[in-house]
Amino acid sequence: MSRIIAGLAGGHALASVPGSGTRPTTDRVKEALFSRLEAMDVLTGARVLDLYAGSGALGLESLSRGASSAELVEADAKAAAICQRNAELLNCLAGPGAARVNRAKVEQFLQRSAGPWDLVFLDPPYPLEESGLSSVLETLAPRLAAGAVVVVERSVRSPEPDWPAGLASFSHRSYGETRLWFAEPAVAEGASVND
């Protein structure tokens, strides 16, 4: 069973998504990830986007730790229903509408959403081909706030994502079978961050 690790809802259990199509982030990986994000000071007041949200654990952990809002995007009906149940817990604690669940395909959601996002989690199912992930990253890049952080969770056997021109990888970490890739908006040569 997954849980919120720390913050406003720390210790609360989250309903898990049943079935083999999902791959929940382990508490060990979540603890390491959020320790790093807190050290980078990107959580407080952040507008969070959790793509391929599953149970919503990453977006909801962000809210519990001080993010201002979290959009949770999940296409599967059963997973989206579980995600909604979990979001209701955070909305009771963090305020109505802090967590919003969108039952939609990631590509469709991004096409109709302008952002800007300060923190984005992508935890796509392993079967997603690298070209599909690249397409999502390319659509996401212009929707990021200056100083945003993008975290992509993949198998250690998956190659590094093919970063589009608008994103630059700055780190990666491995935890058992899981690898986390970190990226930020890329600044074009000769341009300032405010362009």
TrEMBL record:
<dbReference type="InterPro" id="IPR029063">
    <property type="entry name" value="SAM-dependent_MTases_sf"/>
</dbReference>
<keyword id="KW-0489">Methyltransferase</keyword>
<dbReference type="Pfam" id="PF03602">
    <property type="entry name" value="Cons_hypoth95"/>
</dbReference>
<protein>
    <submittedName>
        <fullName>16S rRNA (Guanine966-N2)-methyltransferase</fullName>
        <ecNumber>2.1.1.171</ecNumber>
    </submittedName>
</protein>
<dbReference type="GO" id="GO:0052913">
    <property type="term" value="F:16S rRNA (guanine(966)-N(2))-methyltransferase activity"/>
</dbReference>
<keyword id="KW-0808">Transferase</keyword>
<dbReference type="InterPro" id="IPR002052">
    <property type="entry name" value="DNA_methylase_N6_adenine_CS"/>
</dbReference>
<dbReference type="InterPro" id="IPR004398">
    <property type="entry name" value="RNA_MeTrfase_RsmD"/>
</dbReference>
